[in-house]
TrEMBL record:
GO CC, one annotated term: plasma membrane
Source organism (scientific name): Loxia leucoptera
Lineage of the species this protein comes from: Eukaryota, Metazoa, Chordata, Craniata, Vertebrata
PTM field: Topaquinone (TPQ) is generated by copper-dependent autoxidation of a specific tyrosyl residue.
Name this protein carries in UniProt: Amine oxidase
Residues covered by the Copper amine oxidase catalytic domain: 305-706
Residue intervals of the Copper amine oxidase N3-terminal domain: 164-258
Amino acid sequence: MSLKTVLILLGLALATIFALVCVLLTRERSPRTCQHVPPEQEEMEDGQSLVFADLTAEEMFQVVRYLQGHLGVPLVEASRAKPSENCIAWVDVQVPAKAEVLRFLDSGGARPPREALAVLYFGKQPEPNITELVVGPLPRPAYHRDVTVQKYGGKVPYHRRAATGREYVEINALVHRELKKAPRFLTACCESDGTDLVTLTTAPRGFKSGDRVTWFVLFHNVPGTGYYLSPVGLEVLVDHGDLQVSQWQLRKVFYNGRYFASMGDLEQEFVAGALEVVRLKQPQADAVLGSMKPRRPPGPPGPLQFEPQGPRYSIRNNHITFQGWSFAFGMNPNTGPRLFDIRYRGERIVYELSLQEALALYGSNCPGGMSTRYLDGSFGIGRFAYELVRGLDCPYTATYMDRHYLAETDTPKTNQNSLCIFEHDSALPLRRHFSDSQSFYYGGLRRNALVVRTISTLINYDYIWDFLFHANGALEVRVHATGYISSSFLHGRGTDYGNRVGPHTLGTMHIHHIHYKVDLDVDGQLNSLESQDMEYEFVKDPWSAQNTIERPYLRRKRLKREDEAAFPLNVPLPRYLSFVSPNPNKWGHPRSYRIQVISFAGKHLPTNSSMERSVSWGRYQLAVTRRKEEEPTSTSIYNQNDPWTPTVAFADFINNETITNQDLVAWITVGFLHIPHAEDIPNTVTVGNSVGFFLRPYNYFNEDPSVDSPDSVYFSSEQDAGACGDNPLACLSSAATCAPRLPPFRFGGFLNL
């Protein structure tokens, strides 16, 4: 073989080796796709949690079909129904009585029949009313029973019904007809003919039972931006109480601090030169106050949370399990998220945890703002939980779930991807210690939690509802507020009621108060309430009698009656409040769960207010009552439109009954005072606007249960901390060297609007 041939072959070999090295290096730079490893199988229930499950779309359809064929009265679809007609307002699951459910879950009893609750507006009757019917059994209904009198002590008056979409359409048409009576004024004040002005409802609607008279605030509407920040100074009072739409009329007009009998009167004052007009320019989309459009091009992507071996939680139907936790989840179309049968290590801690109401109460020197007390349950906290944006509302790799509802239509609607579940790394130790004395070691555990989240958009505000499940057996409930502030037109002494946030925009002060029901069953149904706090005692030093020492001591107290367990809103709570079991832990203390409230609530409505009883749950930051099947909720969606004669008044629940060794419920109010400021434009941020509460084990266990977590880390000075066998953190460089499987981004949240 010639030297030339040898050199050629050697060159080819070197080229081949170089190419292989390049391929290997390229593959190393392109990490493998993460492989899903199913979570370690926890004991999965055999469909028992379906006793709490929301209705399926098919079940809703069957309920509607049954009602249409068995009531003997004509039913018009609610989206088209006039006030003088009959319609199905909404349908939800009828959760069985607790005793029935527990016999089924715990004692092998029969599965309770599956039923629905249907609410109907009967406008075409001699005495129009709201009727609630239980329909069953599902999925093939064969009976219905009227439960209205049983629940409320009588028929529910028709004027208490929530306003429907059709009602708002008719009101808007009336308002715009009236606006045409003041063309010169509108041109001068707003550079408008009225067609580009939008209305925002207020509530409640009047001053006494039977009223249905509502102030509507008018704003400039610029597509793609929040109109809530562009009031024009014009507000109108509409009487829409008559069953005949043709009889509705505009009762009063307000503009820039003055009241008028009609738009015609306003126009006359303007033409006569007797009206002071603030001349507003038509807002432009690229410069309008409150635009959320990005002002800079996108930068590099931020940190991304992902699961190298897939989710460590399991979801089956409406049931979730995660590292000792298990629970059923659902969504009420009115009051929003609800959880049932929450267990840790197989033991039930909470039977029901549900949102009850969200109150937003405003101040202003304009009639719309000063009269606003929104009870958001009547608008639909669950119904208006729309699709979540992957990667922003929740982590990109979270699990997203659809929710179905039936409200103001005969056809079920789906809010797809409107609830998310994910494991959250808080980047904080749950517990840790570095030992630098006697022996040298490090031990700790990351503070990871499972999060269940949904977000409701209620006109201008967005509420982020979170439920977090921690490794130490603690449950956290949290709500963040964001979205747009509501505003009034700035005039006179407007800044007595908020801050100026735009040329003519007053950010009006308001409170957000949120109410929850927590039916705790701590080591069984029979619990008591115990408070613990500290005091100081002055004692002589045992070793030095001429000196004294201030010694803190523990003051324990069993609260025996409901009146003792009703804690006013702005009075400090005992620092420790616990639901206690009759049974002790290993160390002789009652097995307990502590309630820890985190809240910055504003002041409650004065009790001499004519509408205070409708929100009397807000008197208390915490109230503990005997659980009763006839007291399932702290309020009613009917309270919004008749707060003067509330359908449900929470204050009546507290009647000084004994609460020792009883089935008890904790009713918790959290909230904050919001005085809008410049930084609330364009949106209120979630930072600092979060409140909630914890349910924490307190002597429930014999030690912190998180010691059994497989995520625990421990290594000593005598071990190689970089060895995977000694330290699981050292395994991450290989176990997590993979690229997450990111589904393509899709969004269909505008489909149901």
